[in-house]
Amino acid sequence: MSIEFIIAIGIVVLALVALVIVGILIGKKVGSLMKEINSTQTTVQDQITHFTKETDAITSKIDHMTTRVDSMTKDVAVKQAYISDFTQTTADFGDSINDLKQNSTKVASYFLSSSRRKVTVTPPRITKVGKTALKMYQSRKNRTKKRFSFN
Question: SS3 of 117, please?
Answer without folding.
Answer: coil
